Amino acid sequence: MTTFLLRRLALVLPTLFFVSVIVFGLQQLLPGDAATALAGEERDPAVIAFLRQKYHLEEPLPVRYALWVGGVVKGDLGESIRIKRPVRDLVLEKLPVTAELAALAIVISLSIGLPMGILAAVKSNTAADYAATMTALWGRSIPNFWLGILLILLFSVQWGLLPASGFVSPAESVPRNIATLIMPAFVLGNAGAALMMRHTRSAMLEVLSADYVRTARAKGLSQARVVLHHALRNALLPVITLGALEFGELLSGAVVTEQVFTIPGFGKLIVDAVFNRDYAVVQGVVLCTALAFILLNLAADLAYALVNPRLRA
Amino acid sequence: MTAEALDITVADAGERPWQAALRRLARRPVALTGLAVAVFFVVVALAAPLLAPYDPLATDWRLVRKPPSTLHLFGTDDLGRDVLARLIWGARASLMAGLVSVSIALSLAVPLGLVSGYLGGAVDGLLMRIVDAMLAIPFLVLAIALAAFLGPSLTNAMIAIGAVQTPIFTRLTRGQALAVKHEDYIEAARAVGNPDHRILLRHILPNIMAPILVQATLAIPGAILAEAALSFLGLGQQPPAPSWGSMLNIATHFISQAPWMAVWPGLAIFSLVLSFNLLGDGLRDALDPRRG
């Protein structure tokens, strides 16, 4: 277990290093002079000179990287050129909104994907299995922004049941918070449910043909007990890792979904920053999402090792 | 061995693997439906000048947001442009994004993956850490960042999507190369004095193409969705050129007044993505005899 832990931690450091190189490298893609591009449309010479000095643009590339990464390590992600606020503050402000949306989406994807996956495996090669597989295919193929628009059309425009856009903090009103997040969370959770269903189905199919499940059946245990108590517990192990991987998909989906439903989260922050040419914010958001993804995967791997007796030795 | 497995073995005898795979694919009606729909969209995109009933860019202030009618089957948009004409021309952007992005990813990833898997050692270690880092950044977040720094256009969106898909193919190619590099026929090729580049291109590559092809087919719908998302956000195809994603973006402003503007482009993306997913799943099963 200790060896596994050390090996896993040893992989995180180079990954973090290369993520920082990629995020820093993004700035080098700006066409022409970086300071002019960063200054935006006004092209104020004073601002350009300030940016040149601030980002050490006269220095060689490795020096600039070292200075930038040194700031990042100390929590300095730069400053928004439009909002005139530290990127770190903006990220910390938007993070809870996206985290709540993602958590709700995971709950939805689990509550749809898990039962569907179990049903498809238990009723393998029946109409129920085909229906579940087709539903998963639907989830994989439907663009989440279109699904969002269709839901707005139905639940907001036609029936007037839910707000079409906006966000209410849970501190302000929990019911209104749920009402504003339920449609976007369903849109996000829908794609995750398809993925969860496929993996649960294949894991369950494998486990259901194992000897210990046959033994449990031979002992005369009910089908429900065999499936839920013996098979599912083992089939769920890989789902822990999958849940962490799904988080990356959720963050990707959140960018577009937050735009459709005008939710002031991480996704909206990066899109607004892109259109404001606020590149420090874009870099900050990319870096933080990658960091969150890496740490969550590390936590998932450790949790997997803890619950899996074969890795505990 | 089951009767089904025996059938496959007997039927496959004397056939090349590709012929057997195509025969198995031809027996899958769902995959064939996917292929037919994908081909339909390709034909529509190629024949857009002949099929489009109107100029997709022609605006008409008298026809602003008209619902579907016999004159305009799918209605008109906020500038009086025919939605069907824009949908037909928009197929080009979506298909091109799907095919070009995946081609970019393949052309970068296959050589890198081959070299990484075949050479191993420090080169492999370095490349895989870079791959890990790229995979750690959520797909669309990285694509948006790349498209933002490169500048918004369909070409840059395709480059961004291709670059973001590269690590997936690199890892796959490397894994496959690792799996076959100790096979007897590779050892034999090495023993008779073939240089490394010849072993990689003539002996390893042809033997690992099947899973790469399946992944490519499954990556196309991902690229189409990503292009639609980037265009929806305003980072892909730029107006007034038609693209399904940007059509949906405009439609969000008129959901209650002109719902048809949102229905058709979304349905087109969904159908095209679904068709490639069905085809990819079928191809994966057909290339894996164990799946029957």
Task: Tell me about this structure.
The complex is a heterodimer of chains A (313) and B (292). Chain A is mostly helical and 313 residues long. Chain A has two domains: 72 residues, no CATH class; 182 residues, MetI-like (MetI-like fold), CATH 1.10.3720. Chain A is built from 14 helices and no strands. The mean pLDDT of chain A is 86. With 292 residues, chain B is mostly helical. Chain B contains twelve helices and no strands. In chain B, α7 crosses α8 and α9 packs across α10. The N terminus of chain B is likely disordered. At the A-B interface, α1, α6, α7, α11 and α12 of A face α6, α7, α10 and α12 of B.
What is the fold's blueprint, element by element?
The complex is a heterodimer of chains A (313) and B (292).
Chain A: H1 2-28, H2 34-38, H3 45-54, H4 61-73, H5 87-122, H6 127-141, H7 144-158, H8 174-208, H9 211-218, H10 223-235, H11 237-260, H12 266-275, H13 279-307, H14 309-312
Helix pairs in contact in A: 1-13, 5-6, 5-8, 5-11, 5-13, 6-8, 7-8, 7-11, 8-10, 8-11, 9-10, 11-12, 11-13, 12-13
Chain B: H1 3-12, H2 17-26, H3 29-46, H4 48-51, H5 83-119, H6 121-136, H7 139-150, H8 154-180, H9 184-191, H10 196-233, H11 244-251, H12 260-286
Helix pairs in contact in B: 2-12, 3-5, 3-12, 5-6, 5-8, 5-10, 5-12, 6-8, 7-8, 8-10, 9-10, 10-11, 10-12, 11-12
Keywords for this entry:
heterodimer; A: mainly alpha; MetI-like fold; globular; B: about 290 residues; elongated; disordered N terminus
CATH homologous superfamily of the largest domain in chain A, by name?
MetI-like
β content of chain A, as a range?
under 5%
User: Largest interface: which pair?
Assistant: A-B, 51 and 44 residues
How big is the Rg of chain B?
23 Å
Percent helix of chain A, as a range, is over 70%
Percentage of residues in DSSP E strands of chain B? under 5%
Shape of chain B: elongated
Count of β-strands of chain A: 0
- Report the oligomer: heterodimer
The largest sheet of chain A, given as strand count, sense and whether it forms a barrel, is: none
Give the topology string of chain A: H per helix, E per strand: HHHHHHHHHHHHHH
Instruction: From the alpha carbons, calculate the radius of gyration of chain A and give it in angstroms.
Output: 24 Å
Provide the number of structural domains of chain A.
2
The structural class of chain B is mainly alpha
CATH topology of the largest domain in chain A: the name is: MetI-like fold
Mean pLDDT of chain A: 86
Element string of chain B (H = helix, E = strand): HHHHHHHHHHHH
CATH architecture of the largest domain in chain A: Orthogonal Bundle
CATH top level assignment of the largest domain in chain A: Mainly Alpha
Strand runs of chain B, count? 0
